[in-house]
């Protein structure tokens, strides 16, 4: 089944009220949990879901009061932030119970995924679980302080070939954890020393510290609708950032008037091109809103 779910219920049936979770969920063939700010991970999740899979959005399921999930195969698809899963993904993973014959995870990244497979394998071990398959796939890098989206979009990242290989592996229930080289570990270590970021929640912050809207804001509210924490509010017709933040940049990339800019986090640089924005061409903004909107939870 291809449909975004929210806290145990199909999202399209959710209204303004909180959704009561079912306990436990019915047994699915393949259940894929995803988080996505700009569509790369949602695209991969949709592709891996196929005809028989079911997609569940992590920003919705994080509210499930009885997070017990049972399926023949369970997968997590998410972006890689500072080489590890986003905080919301780690928190969802830690609080949930998974019962499956085959457990897999695919991280989408843009430049270096380094320790991601080891980190996810350890996350599972901490819960007494053994991952069967962990891999990463290179896509457009959405981290605006380092990358100009126009250059990223022009780069051939060999996505169709790499995605086909991952699909074949997961469909044949291959046991494989992508190895992490010593060089990758050193690169990761160097980045953490340079940035001074927290090792577990490196990007978790407050929205008012990293993003702001300019005079181009038309007050449409899309930034709040795509935000996994609902951390924008309209004040005098303009959107203002305030609240918990994954640093996912969904607000920045999905703003229709490119009105949102980034406040640099020293020692990281200012974004090189503040008019270059990105969303995966196979994903509509409505799909990101459906997956991330906190309207049912924040009122
Ligand atoms: C805060 C942040 C940190 C990131 N860190 C990394 C990283 O460590 N390595 C990397 O290769 N890409 C990194 N990226 C790029 C994303 O992982 C990549 O673009 C991903 O495919 C975005 O997925 P999405 O479109 O599903 O949100 C980062 C992006 C953001 C916003
Ligand atoms: S998405 Fe952009 S234009 Fe719309 S409210 Fe947010 S900042 Fe303003
Ligand atoms: S404020 Fe923007 S960057 Fe922060 S979590 Fe919300 S959408 Fe992501």
Characteristic terms for this protein:
single chain; 299 residues; alpha/beta; Rossmann fold; Alpha-Beta Plaits; 2 domains; two-stranded antiparallel sheet; 12 helices; 15 strands; 30% helix; globular; disordered N terminus; binds flavin mononucleotide; binds iron/sulfur cluster
CATH topology category name of the largest domain: Rossmann fold
Any idea what the radius of gyration is?
A: 18 Å
- β content, as a range? 15-25%
Helix content percent band: 25-40%
Kindly provide the name of the CATH class of the largest domain.
Answer: Alpha Beta
Hetero groups: flavin mononucleotide, iron/sulfur cluster
Uncertain ranges: 1-22
- Structural domain count: 2
The profile of the biggest β sheet is: 9 strands, mixed
Tally the helices: 12
Number of strands: 15
Examine the secondary-structure arrangement and name the CATH architecture of the largest domain. Answer: 3-Layer(aba) Sandwich
SSE run: EEEHEHEHEEHEHHEHEHEHEEEHEHH
Mean pLDDT: 92
Distance linking N and C termini: 29 Å
Please state the structural category: alpha/beta
């Amino acid at each position: 089944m291809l449909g975004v779910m929210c806290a145990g219920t199909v999202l399209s049936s959710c209204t303004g009220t909180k959704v009561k979770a079912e306990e436990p969920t019915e047994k699915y063939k393949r259940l894929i949990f995803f988080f996505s700010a700009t569509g790369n991970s949602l695209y991969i999740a949709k592709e891996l879901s196929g005809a028989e899979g079911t997609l569940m959005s992590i920003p919705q399921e994080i509210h499930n009061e009885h997070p017990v999930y049972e399926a023949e195969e369970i997968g997590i698809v998410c972006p890689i932030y500072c080489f590890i899963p986003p905080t919301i993904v780690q928190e969802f993973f830690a609080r949930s119970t998974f019962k499956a014959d085959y457990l897999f995870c695919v991280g989408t990244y843009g430049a270096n995924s380094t320790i991601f497979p080891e980190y996810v394998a350890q996350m599972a071990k901490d819960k007494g679980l053994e991952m069967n398959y962990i891999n990463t796939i290179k896509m457009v890098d959405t981290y605006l302080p380092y990358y100009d989206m126009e250059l990223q979009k022009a780069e051939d990242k060999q996505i169709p070939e790499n995605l086909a290989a991952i699909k074949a592996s997961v469909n044949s229930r291959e046991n494989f954890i992508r190895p992490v080289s010593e060089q990758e570990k050193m690169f990761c270590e160097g980045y953490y020393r340079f940035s001074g970021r927290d090792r577990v929640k490196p990007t978790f912050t407050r929205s008012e510290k990293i993003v702001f809207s300019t005079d181009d804001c038309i007050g449409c509210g899309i930034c709040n609708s795509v935000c996994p924490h609902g951390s924008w509010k309209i004040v005098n017709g303009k959107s203002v950032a305030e609240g918990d933040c994954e640093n996912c940049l969904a607000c920045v990339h999905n703003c229709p008037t490119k009105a949102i800019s980034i406040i640099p986090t020293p020692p990281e640089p200012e974004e090189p091109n503040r008019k270059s924005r990105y969303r995966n061409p196979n994903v509509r903004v409505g799909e990101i809103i459906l997956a991330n909107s906190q309207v049912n939870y924040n009122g």
